Amino acid sequence: MMFLRLILTLSLALMALPLILSEPYWVDLAFLGVCTGLASAILLLRARRGAAPDPSAKAGRMPPRRMRDGKKTPARRVVVDGSNVMYWRENAPSLEPLLQVIEHLSAQGFSPGVVFDANAGYKLSDRYLDDRHLARLLALPVDRVLVVAKGQPADPVILQAAQDLDAPVVSNDRYRDWTGLYPDATRPDRLIRGGYRDGALWLEAALPEAPARAA
Q1: DSSP labels, 71-123
Q2: Beta-bridge partners for 170
């Protein structure tokens, strides 16, 4: 836009030269200035007509209704100690308790994330399973499943995640070895114990109320 205005200004200047100087070649330059000026004026008008309206022109304008209606309130996070919960049923490693815990949490509007020890795959299927394998088996997005590195304990990773997310932990582990670094791990509202009674899943602590989701 500024370039077109500059060309138009120069063209007008060339058109004015014959009024000041009488040499013949200035008349030719003036004719060239007329042509250039007309072309610049046409382009300038077209640019103004085709310019998109400034979205900030109307301060306080509400976004389209479909955007407002589609916005979801983030679900409350819950950290699941996968290597602990997978032993809840008959004290044998299985994905079934994890699947039921995840289903229970999700039904209440929570977003569970699961953390495993590095050897979880060997316990479950005699081979190493990484984040993607276990996420597929649990029907969870891969960014909500973590298998810690070999030789690294999962407990501090679980407790750090719970602290960062201000989330409770689903586990029967008391984490006594880590209370010095993570004192919140012993809070009644932080640790959720569970298991099976008569074949049915139970969770000892009442989960905090999940935020309501927008319709």
Answers
A1: --PPPEEEEEEHHHHTTTTTTS--SHHHHHHHHHHHHTTEEEEEEE-TTHHHH
A2: 80, 192
Name the 3-class secondary structure at 202.
Answer: strand
CA distances from 61 to 23, 66, 69, 70, 147 (A): 59, 14, 16, 18, 46
d(CA 176, CA 19): 96
Dist. CA 210–CA 1, nearest whole Å? 53
pTM of the model: 0.63
Tell me the three state secondary structure of residue 197: strand
User: What is the distance between the alpha carbons of residues 145 and 143, in angstroms, rounded to a whole number?
Assistant: 6
Place of tokens 């030719």: 28
At 46-86, the pLDDT tens digits run 555 444 333 333 333 333 333 233 444 467 999 999 999 99
Helix or strand holding residue 137 (H, E): helix 131-138
CA angle 150, 176, 169 (to 5 degrees): 70
Q: How is residue 162 written in tokens?
A: 């719970």
Q: Which has the closest alpha carbon to 158: 117, 189, 128?
A: 117
Query: What is the token pair recorded at 26?
Result: 């200035």
Establish how many alpha carbons lie within 13 A of residue 81's alpha carbon, considering only the half-sphere containing its beta carbon.
Answer: 28
Cα distances from 75 to residues 82, 110, 146, 208, 209, in angstroms, run 20, 5, 19, 12, 10
Two structure tokens written together for 185: 């791990």
- How many residues make up the chain in this entry? 215
